[in-house]
Amino acid sequence: MWNHLCAKKSESVTFRLDEKHDKILRKIADEQRISLNTLVNHIFANYVETEMYLQKFGVLKLSTDSFRRILAELDDKTLVNLATRAGSLQAKEFILFKWKELNLHSVTSFIKIFFDVCGFGRCDLVSDSSKVVLSAHHDLKEKGSLYIKHFLESLIQISLDKSCKTTITEDSVTIEFQS
């Protein structure tokens, strides 16, 4: 009954796929127990909403293992300086490039991309009228926690002018700040 009120407007489009890609996509859709249409819509949405911007901005894709090894070679002072610079400059520039403004929505949307798409781990972000709490779990070990802590703290401080309460473990970072 309410589906027509919540449904996104869609267009019917016809295009051809290579047989090899069609078979792979159908297998993935079957494994995820979703329709091929839903899978293709997810793929297109990911490209249009995220990948296109990452490519235009020049984001480098690097395996988790390679990034972990790079972090392991850095002394803590250098690591903190790199993370702070990346959070306060590059992240801010990307947010302005994609969303054209710095606000709570654009910063939290970026943080979701940072974890979910760029591969820095998995995150749970909860916000209400008074605070935002981000819990992230990653596979980057202690140096990864240190990097993520300083990256996010500098991003939030520079972009939103908010201080953070941060707790880190070897494989997780939890950050809380006022919304």
Q: What is the gyration radius calculated from CA atoms? A: 19 Å
SSE topology string: HHHHHHEEHEE
Number of domains: 2
Give the low-confidence spans: 1-5
DSSP strand count: 4
Structural class: alpha+beta
Q: What does this protein look like?
A:
By secondary structure, the protein is α+β, with helices and mostly antiparallel strands. It folds into two domains: 38 residues; 117 residues, Muramoyl-pentapeptide Carboxypeptidase, domain 2, CATH 3.30.1380. 60% of the residues lie in helices and 13% in strands. It has seven helices and four strands; from the N terminus they run ααααααββαββ. α2 crosses α3 and α5 crosses α7. The chain is globular and about 55 Å long. The N terminus is likely disordered.
Short structural summary:
The chain is α+β, with helices and mostly antiparallel strands and 179 residues long.
SSE layout and pairing:
Layout: H1 3-6, H2 19-32, H3 36-57, H4 64-73, H5 76-99, H6 104-116, E1 122-127, E2 131-137, H7 141-160, E3 165-168, E4 172-178
Antiparallel strand pairs: 1-2, 2-4, 3-4
Helix pairs in contact: 2-3, 5-7
Please give a handful of descriptors for the protein shown.
179 residues, alpha+beta, Muramoyl-pentapeptide Carboxypeptidase, domain 2, 2 domains, disordered N terminus
